[in-house]
């Protein structure tokens, strides 16, 4: 059984920032599970028995090699989409996360080709299909709470 396909998956999604108005995104590699070559924010599935906060910290450590300094829960999204020909359903728990930009680096080179820091009004155009929904839901909160 595969989460998100055979049953509803739960995931954390995070938009990391440096506290100075810069936001971190990663470019998905050709070996990424889906949506290769696009810029994306971070995320990962919550495993049975794991706490959401622990998953958030673990995923950021794995993907960006840094610790969570502080985080803010933004809200949740009920995501229905087609991925690799399969209908998927995820509940995304969305966070804004402060990290130390000096410590950030690619921790999963098989999944990401590049990382970059962007201003909220100067984000890359080629982004993950779910990113516009994230921005629509939280854009004002992100702009006002840097």
Q: How would you explain this protein's 3D organization?
A:
- It is built from two helices and seven strands.
- It is globular and about 40 Å long.
- The chain is an alpha+beta fold.
Could you name the CATH topology?
Nucleoside Triphosphate Pyrophosphohydrolase
Overall pLDDT confidence: 93
Radius of gyration: 14 Å
- CATH-assigned homologous superfamily: Nucleoside Triphosphate Pyrophosphohydrolase
Unreliably modeled segments: none
Biggest sheet, open or closed, and with what strands and sense?
4 strands, mixed
Task: Provide a concise account of the structure shown.
The protein has 146 residues and is α+β, with helices and mostly antiparallel strands. The protein has helices at residues 52-64, 131-144, and strands at 9-17, 22-28, 39-40, 42-45, 70-83, 86-98, 112-119. The longest helix has 14 residues, at 131-144.
């Amino acid at each position: 059984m595969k989460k998100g396909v055979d049953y509803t998956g739960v995931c954390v999604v995070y938009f990391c920032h440096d506290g100075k108005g810069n936001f971190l995104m990663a470019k998905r590699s050709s070996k990424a599970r889906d949506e290769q070559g696009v810029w994306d924010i971070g995320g990962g599935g919550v495993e049975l028995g794991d706490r959401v906060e622990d998953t958030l910290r673990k995923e950021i450590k794995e993907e960006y090699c840094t610790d969570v300094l502080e985080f803010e829960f933004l809200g949740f999204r009920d995501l229905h989409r087609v991925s690799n020909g399969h209908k998927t359903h995820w509940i995304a728990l969305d966070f804004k996360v402060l990290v130390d930009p000096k410590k950030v680096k690619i921790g999963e080179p098989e999944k990401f080709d590049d990382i970059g820091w962007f201003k909220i009004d100067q984000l890359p155009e080629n982004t993950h299909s779910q990113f516009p929904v994230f921005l629509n839901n939280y854009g004002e909160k992100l702009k006002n709470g840097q």
